[in-house]
Specification:
With 416 residues, this protein is an alpha/beta fold. It is built from 11 helices and 19 strands.
Length: 416
């Protein structure tokens, strides 16, 4: 894109959220340019576990959650870890999170999150079929497995609320687990199967979305880092590492980097980078057939045709770029409790990514109040892939003056 040309919509960020917004706008005949500081999908979109999970509608902020977090946060191999440091933004995030750990906010958050997840799950299947996206998508469901009776009992807390929002749960007795997934060990307490869930290869998804953006006439500028955003007489001006870019509208889809623009936008963006890890290995002979989540150890395992991925953990350590061996090894130990045939051999990739976490577990979707024409699509927490398609449709509807597909009040960028 030359400095003299002007896109109708500038999309700041080439991850799964930005690319999904681009595809939705291009389908409506809108000219789009995507600005990405590295390569498409190079951030958290690339090597996450690729799970599509309406099952994850309950918010993270729940009664008793803070006590659990405090009990484990100083163990370096804990699934949840906060690096001790003076960080006012993190402290405020924690306080906001704590304030939402009450039944009323939990019910509101679950309802909003379920509506967005269900919509996105429906739209994702339609998008993959319509656009012919080759991303190893499989509607195989998700099996949550529990080692103890106490863990299994605790998992039932939201059954009625999930059912109310159309999310089916099938109870699986411990004696039936290996019939559903033979790779599991004996002696487990039981499980819960969510048939609505699905999975895909996230790296393939972003590559395929980028392909469709280009095929439909959209432009993607890689190696183009955004420095500042300002209102102009006829739209927006975005200063980048490659010069000034202009657009009538803009979408801020920078994930965990979005808070860096809070001052320019005159808006509080309470996103914290929650670091997650994954390990990808060649598919072993004893690989599971369906995606698994071991809730008590906070470990997910996703199988694909040629490889499997083990991932999860939540580390609040700022923008730390190191691969923490302690946390990677904890992933393997947690997985092997349930999958004895899984061994850390033939590792193809060890990876980390920063999840854009918000205190209420909901994204920021909508206009930035002080810069006309700029919209936010940020703060998707651990569910960027799951929520990507609905986000694209919502942002396209807002920009083009269409009626959004659901009530956007819970996702307002000004709610904080």
């Amino acid at each position: 894109m030359s400095q003299g040309s002007k896109a109708e919509v500038l999309i700041l960020g080439g991850g799964v959220i930005g690319l999904s917004c681009a595809v939705s706008l291009l389908r409506r005949g809108t000219r789009v340019t995507v600005l990405e500081k590295a390569t498409v999908g190079a951030g958290s979109s690339w090597a996450n576990c690729g799970l599509i999970t309406p099952s994850h509608a309950p918010p993270l902020a729940q009664p008793g959650m803070v006590a659990k977090a405090l009990g484990s946060m100083f163990r370096k191999d804990s699934p949840f870890y906060v690096r001790p440091r003076l960080d006012p933004a993190l402290a405020r995030f924690g306080l906001d999170f704590f304030r939402r750990c009450n039944p009323r906010d939990v019910a509101r958050g679950l309802a909003a999150k379920a509506a967005l997840l269900n919509l996105s799950r429906q739209l994702l299947g339609e998008l993959i079929e319509r656009e012919g996206l080759d991303c190893e998508f499989a509607a195989a469901g998700l099996l949550m497995v529990y080692q103890t009776e106490a863990g299994l009992a605790e998992s039932r807390a939201f059954d009625s609320a999930l059912a109310e929002h159309g999310i089916e749960i099938q109870a699986v007795a411990g004696s039936e687990l290996r019939r559903l997934e033979p790779a599991l060990c004996e002696g487990l307490a039981g499980g819960r199967f969510f048939p609505i869930d699905a999975h895909l290869r996230p790296d393939r998804l972003v590559v395929e979305l980028a392909r469709r953006v280009r095929e439909q006439g959209g432009e993607i500028e890689e190696g183009c880092e955004v420095h500042s955003i300002a209102a102009a007489a006829d739209g927006l001006e975005v200063a980048t590492s490659k010069g000034l870019r202009r657009g009538r509208y803009g979408i801020l889809a920078l994930g965990s980097w979005s808070p860096r623009f809070s001052q320019q936008l005159g808006l509080r963006i309470p996103i914290q980078p929650g670091k997650g890890y994954t390990i990808t290995v060649a598919r072993p002979e004893a690989a599971p057939r369906i995606p698994l989540l071991f809730e008590e150890h906070k470990v997910a395992v996703t199988p694909w045709a040629s490889q499997i991925r083990v991932g999860s953990t939540m580390e609040f350590a700022g923008y730390d770029t190191r691969l923490n061996r302690v946390r990677l090894e904890a992933l393997w130990r947690g997985a092997q409790v349930y999958l004895p045939g899984l061994v850390p051999q033939n590792a193809r990739e060890e990876w980390y990514g920063w999840r854009p976490m918000t205190p209420d577990d909901l994204p920021l979707l909508g206009p930035a109040p002080k810069i006309p024409g700029l919209y936010l699509a940020a703060g998707h927490n651990m569910l960027g892939v799951s929520l990507s398609t609905a986000t694209g449709e919502i942002l396209a509807a807002q920009i083009l003056g269409e009626t959004p597909p659901l009530d956007l009040t819970p996702f307002s960028p000004t709610r904080f």
